[in-house]
Amino acid sequence: MTETKLYLIRHGKTMFNTIDRVQGWSDTPLTPEGKQTIQHLGVGLQSVPFEEAYSSDSGRAIQTAKIILQHHKEKETIPFEMDERIREWGFGSLDGGYNNILWSLLARILNVDSLEDMSKVSVSYKDFAEAIVAADTTGWAESYEEIRDRVWTGFEDMAKKREASNGGNTLIVSHGYTIAFFLSLIDTRRPIQFDLINGSVTTVIYENGKFTIDTVNDTNYIEAGRNSLVVHNH
Q1: Is 91 helix (H, G, I), strand (E, B) or coil?
Q2: pLDDT 10s digits, 136-166
Q3: What are phi and psi of 167, to 5 degrees?
Q4: Are 188 and 172 in contact (CB under 8 A)?
Q5: Name one Pfam family in it (predicted).
């Protein structure tokens, strides 16, 4: 049986990422620069054998997955589906607003000076989720338990399905907070993390009902793809 490995990819850079707005469940398309980075990523990943591919049901994740698969050597044979459980955290009324407003509001609720302080004073994802619920005026923001359950079962179901079919690699396009949060569920000692790069690859291995973190925030596939395109164009 082959090892079961999930390749968790943060979607490409979008309009909202570029103008520093909270995306959450709201959605904007990839920018030209965002598309180009994901094209490089697709070329960098083209020789990794994938048994299947998933993305969240957000447009930016679907767009990213499709660009990656377009470049894959086995693109005709890799089944692709969407799963709403691995979408980004929902920020309720804070969705679509500017990040600095969100952060100053949450910092006040959490009694920290800045975003940087959050990881220093060990604010947990649970604290963070509860602060979002407290700041949200619509009642749409998800509770910590809702986020935890959907994210965990989403990724775990994908891993179980792959393991049951003799293992191999699964490509999954998701979101910055969702991936970082999932890693903290695997390893509870991990501090809160908000710096996953657009197009970065994080890999986790699943064996006998247990996840292990392999690599985090890896941009080598993007570099490899960029370099190989440079070589081909000369």
Answers
A1: coil
A2: 999 999 999 999 999 999 999 999 999 999 9
A3: 75, -165
A4: no
A5: His_Phos_1
- Which of 50, 40, 46 minimizes the C-alpha distance to 5? 50
The backbone region for 6, taken as left when phi is positive above 0, alpha when psi lies in -120 to 50, beta otherwise, is beta
pLDDT of amino acid 234: 63
Whether residue 181 is predicted with pLDDT greater than 90 in this model: the reply is yes
The helix/strand/coil state of 9 is: strand
Angle at 176 between CA 172 and CA 177, to 5 degrees: 115
The DSSP string of 188-216 is TTPPP---PPTT-EEEEEEETTEEEEEEE
Give the phi and the psi of residue 66 in degrees, each rounded to 5: -65, -40
pTM value is 0.96
Query: Per the structure block, which two tokens stand in for 170?
Result: 């699964």
Both tokens assigned to 98:
């500017």
**Do residues 223 and 197 make contact, with C-beta atoms less than 8 angstroms apart?**
no
Contact indicator for 160, 7 with CB cutoff of 8 Å: no
Give the pLDDT confidence of 62-91 residue by residue, as tens digits.
Answer: 999 999 999 999 989 999 999 999 999 999
DSSP secondary structure of 35-88: HHHHHHHHHHTTTS-EEEEEE-SSHHHHHHHHHHHHT-TTTTT--EEE-GGGSP
